[in-house]
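Researcher: I need the complex structure. Ligand is copper (II) ion. Inputs:
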Amino acid sequence: MRLRFGLIALAGTCLIILSAAPAMAASVSMTDALVYVPSTVTITAGDSVTWTNTGSAPHSVTADDGSFNSSPGCTPSNTDPCIQGGGTYTRTFSTAGTFAYHCLVHGTAMSGTVIVQAGATNPGGGTGGTGGLPNTGPGGTTMIMIAVGALLVVGGLALALVARRRRA
Ligand SMILES: [Cu+2]
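Model: Output:
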């Protein structure tokens, strides 16, 4: 029982450490100042971008050319389908190009750009080293891995407690 606890806790710790490695993801905040921060992110094809609504005003992430839309049906008069405070939207960009997007609630006054560079020839530099703006903060997948790792650690500790109690 003791060994099993140790293994689970170890697995969780490993996950947390792994997730600290450069993530192939960029993060953008949507704020109550009605801006995307940063407004331009540069990634490599195959990377993903996660937008997080860090305020309380609803927003969307909608491509100017219609190639992606976080919130179909989101309008200034019907914000139910929009990304609410605390909500997120993640999209993986598999093809190179420059993708302009805006918010369906606040119009083109709230807009941003995703620059997707071709190829992954960036030895050891991580996704932030390809020029343009660096990635800011951990991406969504990173946060999930940290959460899973933490859960495993907590689970391992709980198992150990239960085992100890049963034995007593
Ligand atoms: Cu908005």
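Model: Summary of the prediction. Residues 9 and 59 are 39 Å apart (CA to CA).
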